[in-house]
User: What shape does this take?
Amino acid sequence: MKKNFLLMAALLMGMAMSVTMTSCDHDDDDDEEQIVNNGGNGSDDGGDSGSGSGSDSGNGGSGNSTSVNGIVNGAIEKGIFTINAEGKQIRVSQGNLQYQPSTGTWRFAENPWDRVGKAANKEMSETYDGWIDMFYWGSGDNPLVVPADDAGFVDWGKNPISNGGNQPNQWRTLSNKELKYIAQHGCMTTRLVQVPLGGYNYCYGLLIFPFNYVLPDGLQLPVAYEDEAYPDCSQEDMLKYQANGAFFIPEAGCICSDEYKSYIIEIDSDAVYWTTTSNGSGYGTLYNIRCSNSQSVPRAVRASVRLVQDL
Assistant: This one.
């Protein structure tokens, strides 16, 4: 089973909470940012995410914009989060970004707990007809090649996402400061959970709840009991939490070549995700959502991407 960590189980309404782990050192919050209540999730103020033909969750190409498990055109319809002290808000995509080399197709993972895994992510041939979901920093124009140190950052969100509206420039990656703000101020609470995948297999990660979140009928916030760090959350319950605006971040880790092996973070170990923030030539910034800290790493490291839409 998973190694034990300490989990803060108390819920403080109206305040942002983050999960405290024994293995994590949190970034100092020196921005003097204040908690911003997003004024209620699930309102129709922002309209449908993106534009274009749209699609149902998990399907490529065009389609209608009917909500399925709370998803409209790849966005969690009620998944509205605050990203700065001025109250700017975004919607979160339904799952981690994926890419099929043989067709050049981008999509969001069909389910929030979906991860490709290390073996498939090593398939970097242009003829590979499977999917990869770990990317070099700023490789939005060519995810199969390590960008040059001086190439700058190309956002993956500039590409048409087949089940995210299928139009270019509808999505973007958060900066390190913005992702940090969600984790520390822009959400009501976060909870560690494990999603059963069959047999003894689980997907470990965090459920992140927006302000004014309304629990689905019959469900409570996940709580760990005794020495349990990751309480079970069934796939059915996960989709119910999602439909009301929560989003799940898998602990997908990161991978890299032997040259950078000191940066490897194993799957099911940490929820590290790329941000747009550079830290010098050839270096990008990973934000660890579980630990609320960031790390500058070479852009040749490959990690997960979670796109958002501005409101």
Remarks:
- The helical segments are 118-121, 176-184, 235-243.
- The chain has one domain: 16-311.
- DSSP finds three helices and 15 strands in the chain.
- Confidence is low (pLDDT under 50) at residues 1-23, 29-64.
